[in-house]
Specification:
Blueprint: E1 2-4, H1 36-52, H2 55-59, E2 62-69, E3 76-77, H3 78-89, E4 92-105, E5 108-119, E6 124-135, E7 141-148
Parallel strand pairs: 2-7
Antiparallel strand pairs: 1-4, 2-3, 4-5, 5-6, 6-7
Length: 153
């Protein structure tokens, strides 16, 4: 398991002192899980792309059949749903994520952090969040589950 504690989303560096499993666990399909060091770098990249408004860049991080579960929305499945969400449905206009912790074990990554930004309505928002990612061996996101420490956003 690899753990990274981080206070900003800009160019996080892997925590070299973190414990490492020394082996590559198998995913449910029996294939090798992605390397934990690479996953620790990949996950914060997602937040940097979201904060920059780079929909094409973040879209490329998801597997073609990825599933995304987010409070207040039907599950998003596949690139078409993800693209529609990020371009047309996401209620957040702009903002910045601050990651406080990234924990990776095999093909699973857990993130805890804060988001501060502005909704399309003009309302300012600040909240804590937790995300859970499942990565493919190619380091794309096969799944993401988001939880907010506030009423629906």
């Amino acid at each position: 398991m690899q753990t990274q504690t981080q206070t900003q989303t800009q160019r996080p560096a892997p925590n070299r002192a973190a414990a490492r499993s020394g082996r590559r666990p198998l995913t449910p399909s029996g294939s090798a899980a992605p390397a934990e060091d690479a996953a620790v770098a990949r996950v914060p990249q997602y937040y940097s792309l979201v904060d920059a408004g780079d929909v094409s860049g973040l879209f490329a991080l998801f597997a073609p059949d990825a599933r995304y579960h987010r409070p207040g929305y039907e599950p998003l499945v596949g690139h078409t749903d993800l693209l529609r969400f990020y371009r047309d449905e996401r209620v957040i206009a702009e903002g910045a994520h601050t990651l406080t912790e990234v924990v990776v074990s095999g093909a699973q990554a857990a993130v805890h952090g804060e988001f501060h930004g502005v909704l399309h309505s003009g309302q300012r928002v600040g909240l804590r969040f937790a995300d859970f990612f499942t990565l493919t061996p190619e380091l794309t996101f096969a799944g993401r589950d988001t939880f907010f420490f506030t009423p629906l956003v």
